[in-house]
Amino acid sequence: MNLSNTQTVAYLASNAGEAVQQVNDTQAPMAITVDGQVRAVVQDADSYRKTQDQIAMLRLLALGKQQIEQGEVLDHDAVVALLTAEDDAR
Asked: What is the pTM of this model?
């Protein structure tokens, strides 16, 4: 994460509108420090959503890998048979 944009919590408290505008304009996160330590990150909503979507995709990939390693897979013919059976049931 690029933490080149760092501000104090006091700055955020007195300039919240400007801080929000800045992260929206730049789509770069703003690190917020308390006593010289980064304690929070302010991020624009679109970037946050993208990050959450990426995390969800990584979780799905990890689950898929785990299922493959455990042998919980179906070959093509089995999947086609399942889908055909579902269509026939409708």
From this structure: 0.72
